[in-house]
């Protein structure tokens, strides 16, 4: 069995308030065998790109909430990423295959649920896109905009956190549909969240729809902001709908059919904020919550 | 022309905070002719029952909000009621017809938009029911429960303000459908509103639906409560939908078909809190906001 070093980003302990780089450590002493044991139906993979996503903050807190399980202190954190199969015990994957889905924040991982990851079919786009426009954030933009809001040409669209991985896509989808688009983003304090929602409610049009995929400004607060102006729901006949994108992954092929031509024809642009190396990962993740990133925050673990 | 005295409940001035009886006065000096002028297509009506509804508080404040127009200080206030036609200039109505719809808080009114009121076809139930279970509050319960929440047998239903005109019906509709029902009501402070919604959000089930027909606890506040726990919208995939019942009045015949047999077969019970005389109307209306009433608050102007 070939044993190699396997650098890892480990959560030291559960986090209160804003996460800090020092809440994580780089463990350089772990090793891993690059061959799966006989009879395993897992995948042994090399991680290429890791995705920094706001929802990960929720996993840094001990919670019984069924929404997303907590990380385990002392273990590597996990998240969406792009990885390459080095050894496969699963019929759907062979050595050399690429996929996107849940993996560890480490150089090599064992994927115990290969059914839950998406094999990458198109490699004529940057592979890192599968952490964003071609992955979970892209699907979030698609579901939140098209499925929940059911937008029509000429309607008015407001995008909160409009420079982030999801927001930048919603804004462009809306423009392509012929909507009038307003977005907010870019202050150091991430001008989103409770106060922004209050202002949005006052400015919504009759029969407006609000799709809610997350609330980044709330994740670091002991007790979240109270949101006023909810009476606008009644007077303006508004719909507010929360969703978790994983419930909608059956739409991924339909989304790919729509978005791939847009990318190839240059009709959509996608901004990434890429940092190099697992050592840079804690700062990149923490930076999400102070608005450091412009565009989708990606960590390169290895390019091949 | 026969001129008769026409007692009126007049709004003295716009209201701040909780409305008081003294915000209104009883005007006993007005008179009205009991015949319409030649060529009028209005209705001259005698008011029988008047409905005290929470949304009326919003009309006591000067607002540009399109939701519901403000009352005019110095003039009689208006609201839903049951009335009898004394003289008709409109083809759809004749002397002696009964209807429910918008009318004035006075003994006699001129209805200038007869198309907007509903002729009463069934008089084998208490006429006052047309201010409640057979009128706007009944339709609110019907639309909010069946149309917005699309409930299924066996689901769990929570009813806020469960003893009010709307809430008492939602609770019974839900029981009749085979749902498990929990309601809140009855404290002097009307244990509803922001804090209740916060608790409800924490206790909602996955894919729950919240229909919002009003926010009685907020109407007297300069600045409304902030509502926390909205992140539950995401983690529990909740839908929150506000509505204004007037948008759904085309469903009234369908609702009548459902609810009339329930009433006649005694399968639904409907609690009214009835006070006698226009003089009692200001106190009855104001009482809504301190939780004085038990069941639908009705004012009898005349029984025939």
Automatic annotation (TrEMBL), chains A, B:
Keywords: Oxidoreductase. This is Alcohol dehydrogenase superfamily, zinc-type. It comes from the Eukaryota. Residues 7-114 form the Oxidoreductase N-terminal domain. GO terms for molecular function: 2-alkenal reductase [NAD(P)H] activity. PANTHER family: PROSTAGLANDIN REDUCTASE (PTHR43205), PROSTAGLANDIN REDUCTASE 1 (PTHR43205:SF7). SUPFAM superfamilies: GroES-like, NAD(P)-binding Rossmann-fold domains.
